[in-house]
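@channel anyone free to eyeball this complex?
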Amino acid sequence: VPMLGDPISSGLRKHMRMRRSAVLAIVLITSLAPTVVAKHQLIPPQGINAIGDCDNTAQGPCIEWPKTGSNLSWPVDVYLSDKLSGEEVNLKTDVRNSFAEYNPMPARNPYLQEISVSGSAELVATLSLQDFNVYASTVSTIGPSPAYHISHTVITFNSAILWNRSLDFHCYVDIFGVDHCYSDARKVSNHEMGHAEGLSHQPAGASSVMIQGPLTYYHVGAADVNNIQLIYGTYP
Amino acid sequence: MNSAMKVLASTAFLLLVSVTVLGGCTGNPNAPQVTQSPQIPLSPAQAPATLASDCSTYATSYDRIPPTAAMLAKLSSAVVVGVVQDVGEAQWNTKDGGPPSDINDLNADHVMRLVRVETDQTLKGATPTGTFTVYVPGGSIGCDKFIDGDHPASLTPGDTFVFFLRDTPTRIALEGTWLAAQMWSVHADATIDTPAEGKLTLAQVVEEISATK
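replying in thread with the prediction:
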């Protein structure tokens, strides 16, 4: 596991040297989308890129973890798959650090609490092969009733990504036409944990970890805190 | 006896060669056939088993660098502008045709719709002419909805899309179908809301994809 001060781990450096010697790197376009956010719609007609989007003027409900009636945050048990710890960059560490960004928020959002038994977890984080241009995905089970309550969430980090803590989002195509994509693990972890809390994507320029692509904030920003408070309310 | 066996062996060999050549074998068993069969049933023979839950939505959010048309074209086996002709009932794409047993596998990736599409323009690849069948992830089974950000939750005959196609999905044998890895809706005014470049005209998207050849 590389230390934070080590910009690139030895394994990754070796990997990159090998690639450099044989590969004509073509950096793919990393421009950001002018993200179209569908406000106040539970299910946008063309899909659900926007999960949990809401504000104080919402015509429809926010998508959220259910409140317990307590003024304090309530626990959501999280199971971190053992797959997350076998990587060169330990994704478990990054996910735990993401907990530390969301848990102290001045809002009644869920308190993310790590457990060791997968069967009883409401939120599962794991590592698995996905489409190669996907960094990670979050599946939220919404319902059964009320229909806007999140009951289960699965975060999947793509095992095809070369996870690290210094090289930001980029991909290149090698001479064999094969894509290789890098990403900063902590940055993606903070983003996915935002989805798990109920946050949706934000447009470029927002002070948020929920922007898609390289211009997203590294740490939870003011817009994220504000949106969490809009969903769950603040402490009295 | 020996000559009879030789004749039999020669006949078998010639038959094998003929089948291979006429069948268009490319050496890749997963490669989609250029000639698509319009006879693939779009809906399952039996209604798919429903979950014992009380009507939930399983929504997937994919996180990626928002792709341009050129990026998706490079990642696709074929790109087609096509019009939806018919849409099958959603079904599980598991081997046994039933729902996944693990709650963590309940998502749009394990549900599919088979959709008949009429080709309007072929922008890339050895794509079919006329009508062909695509595999679109997600759909509704019973009162449960499985949706993701890459595919429309509902499809209606007459809808036009730019289909970014991949080879036949490997999870289930669906010979003669293509996986719609992504599909961009073409509006009535011939514009497309793209994830990376905002609103473009269909002509602009076609030009961008053509430039990748």
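from a first look: The CA atoms of residues 206 and 212 of chain B lie 10 Å apart.
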